[in-house]
Structures are given as C-alpha cells and as structure tokens.
Specification:
The protein is α+β, with helices and mostly antiparallel strands and 151 residues long. It is built from 3 helices and 11 strands. The strands form 2 sheets. The protein has a 6-stranded antiparallel beta sheet. The longest helix is centred in the N-terminal third of the chain and has 15 residues, at 14-28.
C-alpha cells in the first residue's frame, strides 16, 4: 500500500499554513475546530491511502487543540469509526465522559458521531484507520462503550 501526501506545510507561507492545513484536515479526516499553539511556527503534513475499502490517514502536526462539536456532527458526510494509533508524541482525548492519553504505540477508538476534544503534543503523529461503522459493529457490536479507551 502506498500513502499519498495530500498536504504539507513545506511550500506554504507561514501565515497561511494553519488555515490551509485546517481545510485539508476537515476534508480528509473530520470537520472540527482547532487552535494551534503557535500559528507562525505551525508545521504539518497529511498522507492518505487505502487498504481495500478502509481509508488510512497519517498526520503529523505541531501542538494544537481540537474540538468536534454537535454542529460538526450535524453535517457529517460519512459514517465511520476511527481506529487511532499514536505513532509519536501524545494526544489527550476526551469523548463520552472518558479521558485518555495516547502515547506512541497506543490504540483507541474515536467516534466522529459523538463530540470530542483533543490536545496534541509537539511532534504528534497519528495514524487513523477509517472503518465503516456497520462493518466494525457487525464484528464487535455497538462501539459507544469502546470509545476513548486504550486497546
């Protein structure tokens, strides 16, 4: 499987990097609000690929906070569950009253049909496997009790 770079801040002026990244991330992963620790030094790249009908998204980014709200959920275009594997750095996630810190090697489910908040550390790198909800739930049952828990 070959991953394709869909965004990199390498060739984008510093003042435009974050806004450009945010638009690409909302299109390729999930609509959300985000706030970088520092707009002028923001650095990120996003790669995508497919494994059968499963989409993979690998993203590296500078420190930032994200929130996925009821407003974002109301406009959701697909029904996937995210299997998140932290490759580097740390993400602090909160969803459905649970909080978790994902460190390199950790895996957790995140449900984009439920609100969540996240805080990415410096040099965070995350691999997200977008799994069709119906396929995952056919194998493991309802996933709500599985979100924001270390696997």
């Amino acid at each position: 499987m070959k991953m394709k770079t869909v965004f990199s801040t390498n060739n984008v002026h510093a003042r435009d990097r974050f806004d450009f990244w945010h638009g690409v991330a909302c299109k390729n992963l999930v609509d959300h609000n985000s706030l970088p620790e520092c707009r002028l030094t923001f650095d990120a790249h996003i790669e995508t690929g497919y494994l059968g009908n499963l989409e993979l998204v690998l993203f590296h980014n500078s420190p930032m906070q994200v929130s996925h709200t009821a407003r974002h959920i109301a406009h959701a275009r697909s029904d996937h569950v995210f299997v998140c594997r932290q490759v580097a750095g740390v993400i602090f996630l909160e969803q459905d009253t649970r909080q978790i810190a994902l460190e390199a090697g950790d895996v957790a489910l995140l449900d984009p049909l439920l609100p969540y908040e996240g805080n990415f550390s410096a040099d965070s790198e995350t691999l997200v496997l977008k799994v069709p909800r119906s396929e995952l739930e056919a194998r493991v049952g309802k996933t709500r009790d599985m979100v924001a828990r270390s696997i």
